[in-house]
């Protein structure tokens, strides 16, 4: 069962890592491995959401999502989108960007280095908004309670996330402008680039969130309509059919899942720029990660259960927050890509370990409760 579900993912992983060694040596291997882990972790909750919705779809639409959806997710967002970002930022054509990345690495690296402030500002704002919206939301399950409780209270203030993000952007732009002035006016336009790119990142986040909200509302409307049909069937004494969406409802659900997947892909792709500027290594790492997300979705649909690693979502969002800060810092200062990659992996591993410990503690508590109730039963029956 496991091999059948994850077989393609294992095969793509092996090919991707071999290609990374041939392309970039063992350094390339390490970068691709780190990118794969980050992509899987950042999209883990997406796979859980996908599985919950996918169960309600007919077999036909499930197959559409897991075939055409894979093409859109892997080739569209993970392969084309990074090239598009480099091409727009460096003001060159996408084909030229790929050609330079493969054949003229020095020229490509120079273009990406020159474009890095705009990429970092755009990506930093987008990721920072994801992190702030998560951390300011009051959740039933808290990982780092000492930090999350007071932040959840602050989160009751409207538009706080956007205000903080804009303040961070203003400080970043002012810092760049000040340093440019101190160096005799060199790179005077850099501050303006940072400001405009950061605002573009913020707008992109709001647009993606708006689209997700639109399709989510459509989905809720369809579910309400089906619920009403179920109620009518019960009242009339008819057998209530199993809810399997098809036709228009399934089409809206498919669109919603694709928008949702694209929004989750944004954080993985943009976060990848904090680790490497090489679009080949980026495409390999993100492509491998995307395959595992799809396999995990299928596994969840078929199995129906999975150990509840409740803190993994928290760890992934803290990793997003760390990548956002790193991207903003790299507008001015260089940070080694290995340090960047390890920060995210350590946070995710820590949250995974915390989840395992929590599950063991809950299981032990349940065992103790059942054991003590069993002892009471024996005593009472003896009497």
From TrEMBL:
Keyword Heme: no
Coiled-coil regions listed in the entry: 212-239
Ranges annotated as spanning the membrane: 7-26, 32-53, 65-90, 115-136, 157-174, 194-215, 240-257, 269-294, 315-333, 339-356
Record key words, sorted: Coiled coil, Membrane, Transmembrane, Transmembrane helix
Source taxon at top rank: Bacteria
Family matches, as InterPro entries: DUF475
Keyword Coiled coil: yes
Pfam families in UniProt: DUF475 (PF04332)
Record-given protein name: DUF475 domain-containing protein
């Amino acid at each position: 069962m496991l091999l059948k579900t994850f077989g393609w993912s294992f095969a793509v992983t092996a090919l991707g890592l071999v290609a990374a060694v041939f392309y970039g040596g063992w350094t390339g291997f390490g970068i691709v491995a780190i990118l794969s882990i980050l992509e899987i972790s950042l999209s883990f909750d997406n796979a859980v959401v996908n599985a919950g919705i996918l169960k309600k779809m007919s077999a036909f639409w499930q197959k559409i999502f897991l075939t055409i959806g894979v093409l859109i997710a892997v080739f569209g967002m993970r392969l084309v989108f990074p090239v598009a970002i480099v091409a727009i930022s460096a003001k060159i054509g996408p084909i030229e960007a790929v050609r330079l990345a493969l054949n003229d690495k020095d020229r490509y690296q120079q273009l990406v280095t020159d474009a890095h402030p705009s990429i970092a500002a755009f990506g930093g704002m987008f990721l920072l908004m994801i992190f702030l919206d998560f951390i300011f939301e009051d959740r039933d399950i808290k990982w780092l309670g000492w930090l999350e409780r007071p932040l959840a209270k602050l989160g009751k203030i409207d538009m706080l996330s956007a205000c903080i993000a804009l303040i961070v952007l203003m400080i970043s732009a002012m810092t760049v402008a000040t340093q440019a002035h101190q160096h005799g006016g060199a790179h005077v336009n850099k501050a303006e680039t940072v400001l405009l790119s950061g605002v573009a990142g913020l707008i992109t986040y709001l647009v993606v969130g708006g689209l997700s909200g639109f399709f989510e509302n459509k989905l809720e409307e369809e579910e309400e309509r089906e619920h009403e049909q179920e109620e009518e069937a019960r009242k009339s004494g008819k057998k209530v059919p199993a809810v399997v969406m098809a036709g228009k409802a399934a089409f809206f659900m498919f669109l919603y899942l694709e928008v949702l997947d694209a929004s989750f892909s944004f954080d993985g792709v943009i976060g990848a720029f904090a680790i490497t500027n090489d679009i080949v290594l980026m495409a390999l790492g993100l492509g491998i990660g995307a395959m595992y997300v799809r396999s995990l979705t299928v596994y969840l649909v078929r199995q129906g259960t999975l150990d509840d690693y409740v803190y993994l979502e928290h760890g992934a969002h803290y990793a997003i927050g760390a990548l956002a800060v790193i991207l903003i810092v790299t507008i001015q200062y260089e940070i080694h890509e290995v340090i960047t990659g390890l920060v995210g992996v350590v946070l995710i591993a820590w949250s995974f370990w915390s989840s395992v410990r929590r599950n063991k503690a809950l299981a032990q508590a349940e065992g103790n409760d059942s054991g003590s109730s069993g002892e009471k039963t024996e005593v009472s029956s003896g009497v």
